[in-house]
Structures are given as structure tokens and as C-alpha cells.
Design goal:
With 205 residues, the protein is an alpha+beta fold. It has 10 helices and 5 strands. 45% of the residues lie in helices and 8% in strands.
């Protein structure tokens, strides 16, 4: 199975955003680009195409999606009614690995992807081990009964990374369960800190 590999902290520093808790701590200590001259190098001002590419990379690595898969999400979003950028972020947010992360069952999307891959998650009572599975309103996501003593899942619930689940999700931590109440709203999508319009402009060239 293809994956985004490589040093996550270095990539986070290059993109200027934390991709996991470790990256967040490192960005606080070293808020500059990686490399020998990162600390002394004058920040380059990005305009036009470079800015669009960086925003696409930020979204792609944030949701841990490969290039071809990301382009397919864009094509699907373009065929849907409504604003293309909002459609794109909504599709990415509704991925099962992201929903598991948003519900607090993992400390990062990478860990959430692993939790799903290893078969610890059920959707509507059936095991689903596909991280890209697209959830829909009404879906019930829960940790399988035999996986509730999993150290990583318990640690994530005991020391949550996110302050709370977004409004389009409902969490019941005591039951290791959550529900998709609706599709993400525009306000929810704005909190992703991704400028989807730049991505739309990139693919519209």
C-alpha cells in the first residue's frame, strides 16, 4: 500500500504547519525552515503559482493523501453542486481516518490511519479497514469491543489533542463511539486552516 513516507517534522517545518503532536512541539522550538541555513535564511515571499502549490501540499500532507488520490478528490468535488473548494475539503474531512482522529480515538491522522488499517474500527456494526472510506450523515463509528484496551486508543482518549469534536460529529468517549451528524459546515471547513480557493485556482490553470 502506497503511503507518504519521510520525516514528518521536517515536512511540517517546510510547510509551516504541524502534521502531528511531535511536529507541533518542534515548530514551537524551531519556527523556521529546515536545513543548514534555515535559521538565518530570509523567508521567501510566495506569490501566484508557488503559493497555490504550497497550499495544495499543505492539504495533501495534512490528510495524508497521495498526489493522484488528491487529484481524484478534486475531480469529484468539481462534479458536485456547490463551491468546489468547500466540496473538496468536505470530502477530505469525511474520510474515515480523519473522522477517527476528529472523534479523539487517535492523536494524529497517521495514527488514525493505522487504527483503521489494523481493523480496530467498525462503521454501522461492520468492520471497515479502508482509511479512505467516505462517511455519510447517520454513520456510527466505533472502536471494536476487542480493541478497546488498545494502548494508543486509550492514551488518545485520556489525553485528547483536540479541544472537542467538531459540530458535525457526536462523540461518546465512554462507549468508544461516535456518530456523523451531518456534512461539515462552511464554519467547520474554515477551521481546517486550508485555503481551498488557492487549490481550485491551481487545478483550474
Amino acid at each position: 500500500m502506497a503511503r507518504n513516507r519521510g520525516p514528518v517534522v521536517r515536512r511540517s517545518r517546510r510547510l509551516g504547519m504541524a502534521l502531528d503532536p511531535k511536529s507541533e512541539r518542534q515548530l514551537d522550538r524551531r519556527p523556521y525552515a529546515p536545513g543548514q541555513h534555515g535559521k538565518t535564511q530570509r523567508p521567501r515571499k510566495m506569490l501566484g503559482y508557488a503559493l497555490q502549490v504550497r497550499e495544495k501540499q499543505r492539504a495533501r500532507f495534512m490528510y495524508d493523501v497521495l498526489e493522484r488520490q488528491f487529484r481524484n478528490y478534486y475531480k469529484r468535488a468539481a462534479r458536485m453542486p456547490g463551491v468546489v473548494g468547500d466540496n473538496l475539503l468536505s470530502l477530505l474531512e469525511r474520510r474515515l481516518d480523519n473522522v477517527v482522529f476528529r472523534l479523539g480515538f487517535a492523536v494524529s491522522r497517521r495514527q488514525a490511519r493505522q487504527v483503521v488499517n489494523h481493523g480496530h474500527v467498525q462503521v454501522n456494526g461492520s468492520k471497515v479497514d479502508i482509511p479512505s472510506y467516505l462517511t455519510t450523515p447517520g454513520d456510527v463509528i466505533e472502536i471494536r469491543e476487542g480493541s478497546r484496551d488498545h494502548g494508543g486508543i486509550r492514551l488518545a482518549l485520556e489525553a485528547p489533542v483536540l479541544p472537542a469534536s467538531p459540530g458535525w460529529l457526536e462523540q461518546s468517549a465512554a462507549d468508544f463511539r461516535g456518530r456523523v451528524l451531518s456534512e461539515p459546515t462552511k464554519e467547520d471547513l474554515e477551521q481546517t486552516q486550508i485555503n481551498a480557493q488557492l487549490i481550485v485556482e491551481l487545478y483550474s490553470r
